[in-house]
Structure formats: structure tokens, C-alpha cells
Amino acid sequence: MKKLFLLFSITLFFVSCGTSKKASERTIIGEGSERVAVKKNTHNERKINKKNSQEKETNETVLYSEAELKTFRIIEYAKTFEGTRYKFGGTDNRGMDCSGLVCTSFKNEDITLPRISRDMATQGIPINLEESKEGDLLFFQTNAKKKVINHVGLVVETKNGEIFFIHSTVQKGVIISSMEEPYWKNSFVKVRRVI
Questions:
Q1: How far apart are the C-alpha atoms of 106 and 110, rounded to whole Å?
Q2: What is the pLDDT of residue 62?
């Protein structure tokens, strides 16, 4: 019983010490095989649209799985290409296509995906659109004449049922779009989860 009380006291000491860090830090507090405790920043590291998105300062600790942390890093890396022009076959900041953006972003976390969107659409597991979450892949048919998947986007945020995804378009390059836009809603085919 004394050993249990001593262990509890030591644990309580370390937990209370861990909460005294500044809220502006992002700190891994403890690691386990399944979940990691992360102190949230006062600045929103997961902003989707800097003009419209605001997050209150917070001092809370949130538990994320390793897969969730990997997903966040994939999304943040993909967002570094926002504004990059479209280039067929491109995979870097000089220009990239839709599958190049997704391939490069996942490769940055040591996840290898096929290079072509229709081949990517066979990876992972199928998900209903309503169940989409950050890191899922959205697939589209944008050519009415050819009934094949020819476009892919990476879900970066779901907010109040609205799904936002990053992708590379011929006209605007790498941008974030909403599934509420009629063009994307009408050309949508399926969602796959690879993480």
C-alpha cells in the first residue's frame, strides 16, 4: 500500500510540474504506445484559411495518437505549397499537379502512395463522405468524356459538416477548396483513408 501511495505521489508531482510550462509552447508531455499528450500552442498551427480562421488562446493539453500527429504533419507540409503553380508531373515548389502534391506530402512522412490519382484511389479503406476527417483523400472525375478518376485532394479540415481540401488545379495551382462548391460536389467519386 505504501508503494502504491508513493507511486501516486510521484506521478502527481510530475503531472503538476508538467502543467507549469508556458501555453505558447507545443510540448510532448508523455509518450505511450498509443497516445501522445501535446500542449496546444496559443497560435493555431492548423489554420486552413488565415483570413477567415481564428482560434482562441488555450492552455489545455490534448491527447493525439501517433497517426493523428502524422496526419497533422502531412497537412502542414501540403499547405506549404499553397499558391504553387500547376505543372503536370510536378512534385515541388516550381510546380505540381494534384497527385504530385498528395504523393509528396505523404512521402514527407515516409508513406508511399502511387503517383497517379486513379491508382491512389485503390489504397487504404473506403469511407463515406460524411465520415471524412483530416488526412483522408477525396477523388474526383473532372472529365465528363472519360469516366475515370483523374483528380485527388487531401482533406485538411472538417468544420460544421463542411469539408475543406487542398489540391492543385490547372487554373489556380495549389489551393484549398470546399466540398460545398458545386463543381467539386458534382465531380466527387469517393473517399479513401490511408492513415
A1: 7
A2: 79
